[in-house]
């Protein structure tokens, strides 16, 4: 069972909220760093093991630098994410660029900083050649297994996915790149998101290890590293169990011994690109109640909205909610934001203690894909981010967006563009 805890005692959180305007995000450094180190320890048996932190999950340098300091790399999917990772001190094979419909400037910059370029399609070989003077010596391909695997509700069926090279294309991709002088090869896949079934991750390793053998036999290419992607989920609901990653590690080690070492394919570096598992449970969206209304249902209206946390509205995601300093009988509410959209809801028909205007609600498990997925619809301004440091201090790591920030990119004079 997943126990939902607060990063600080309720009385300390109450004092914090007196000093900091809501809404805001709060991240627990001590907790996420312990979790990050524990994950590395689980795979210490694997040669040169690395987790490329999914920058898209939480692109904040204060968090990224802490993870990079203990050996994490960066999984990037855009030019700004590449630049952000470089500014945080990374370069070379500590950065993996996995993008799709990739613009030329992303290929150019990734090549400039010697990042690993993970190609999403066979046509990207030609696109990369147009973007750089010389194909880099290290190249990776993203593999889409199609009907051979099933996806899940978040990432979708692989057959319907826009990502990755197909079964029919994958060997040819490596054959082409070998002929073009590539010396070091990687293999990547991403077939699930927020998955809690441990054997799903194990089967992904089995699939990639088997593909390493196929590519070796049919293209004469030895794969040097495999990236098992992200997809390791977290228990958003209290009745869910976390994934048993010790079991995952043990099973993958057995597969490594039988499918890689015994087949003469070692050494093979193993990596992941986890963001949610590393950070998700250790972030909180703190919000105050503006209104409690009775219509055909009872509603709790917050000073945060879908613009601050879009996962519940986007695909019905569940987030646990704590009503600060309140205990007692339960009442059923829809918890909403103030956007002009009826799906702007954090919870539907949720049992919570009776709520009044001015109460504080803590929305759990928002450390990943929370602030990062925000937007400015209805001209809503982005909230601040704070770090609860390991020594118990509160540090602002991103200030709240201001009206001036929002207007900064607008041209009120209506400048014309010459055609």
CATH uppermost class of the largest domain: Alpha Beta
Strand content bin:
15-25%
Q: How many whole angstroms does the radius of gyration measure?
A: 23 Å
Instruction: Assign the structural class, choosing from mainly alpha, mainly beta, alpha/beta, alpha+beta, or little secondary structure.
Output: alpha/beta
CATH-defined topology of the largest domain: TIM Barrel
**Mean pLDDT metric:** 95
The total domain count is 2
Distinct helical segment count = 12
Structural account:
The protein has 419 residues and is of the alpha/beta class. It folds into two domains: 28-279, TIM Barrel (Alpha-Beta Barrel); 280-407, Beta Barrel (Lyase, Ornithine Decarboxylase, Chain A, domain 1), CATH 2.40.37.10. 30% of the residues lie in helices and 22% in strands. The chain has helices spanning 10-19, 29-42, 61-69, 79-87, 104-112, 124-131, 167-179, 198-219, 245-261, 276-279, 311-315, 403-407; strands spanning 24-28, 50-54, 73-76, 95-98, 116-119, 138-143, 184-189, 225-227, 269-272, 283-294, 298-302, 321-323, 330-336, 345-353, 360-363, 384-388, 394-398. The chain is globular, with a radius of gyration of 23 Å.
């Amino acid at each position: 069972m997943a126990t939902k805890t607060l990063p600080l005692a309720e009385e300390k959180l109450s004092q914090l909220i007196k000093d900091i305007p809501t809404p805001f995000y709060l991240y627990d450094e001590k907790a996420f760093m312990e979790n990050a180190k524990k994950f590395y320890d689980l795979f210490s048996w694997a040669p040169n093991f690395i987790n490329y932190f999914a920058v898209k999950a939480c692109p904040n340098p204060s968090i990224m630098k802490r993870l990079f300091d203990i050996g994490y790399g960066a999984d990037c999917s855009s030019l700004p994410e590449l630049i952000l990772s470089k500014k945080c001190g990374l370069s070379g094979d500590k950065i993996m660029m996995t993008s799709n419909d990739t613009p030329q400037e992303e290929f150019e910059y990734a090549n400039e900083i010697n990042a690993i370029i993970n190609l999403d399609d066979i046509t990207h070989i030609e696109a990369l050649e147009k973007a750089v003077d010389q194909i880099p010596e290290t190249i990776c391909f993203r593999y889409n297994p199609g009907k051979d695997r099933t996806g899940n509700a978040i990432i979708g069926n692989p057959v319907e996915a826009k990502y990755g090279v197909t079964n029919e294309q994958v060997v040819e991709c490596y054959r082409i790149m070998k002929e073009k002088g590539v010396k070091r090869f990687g293999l990547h896949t991403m077939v699930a998101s927020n998955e809690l079934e441990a054997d799903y991750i194990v089967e992904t390793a089995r699939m990639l290890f088997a593909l390493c053998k196929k590519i070796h036999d049919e293209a004469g290419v030895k794969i040097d590293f495999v990236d098992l992607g992200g997809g390791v989920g977290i228990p958003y609901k209290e009745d869910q169990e976390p994934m048993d990653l010790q079991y995952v590690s043990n099973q993958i080690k057995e597969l490594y011994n039988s499918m890689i070492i015994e087949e003469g394919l070692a050494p093979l570096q193993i990596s992941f690109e986890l963001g949610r598992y590393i950070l998700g449970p250790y972030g909180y969206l703190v919000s105050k109640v503006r209104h409690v209304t009775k219509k055909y249902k009872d509603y709790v209206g917050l000073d945060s909205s879908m613009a601050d946390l879009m996962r519940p509205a986007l695909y019905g995601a569940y987030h646990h909610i704590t009503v600060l300093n309140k205990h007692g009988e339960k009442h059923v509410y829809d918890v909403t934001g103030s956007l002009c959209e009826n799906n702007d809801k954090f919870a539907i028909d949720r049992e919570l203690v009776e709520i009044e205007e001015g109460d504080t609600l803590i929305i759990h498990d928002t450390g990943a894909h929370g602030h990062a997925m925000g937007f400015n619809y209805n001209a809503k301004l982005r909230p601040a981010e704070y770090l609860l440091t390991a020594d118990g201090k509160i540090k602002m790591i991103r200030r709240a967006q201001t009206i001036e920030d929002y207007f900064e990119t607008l041209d009120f004079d209506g400048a014309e563009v010459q055609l």
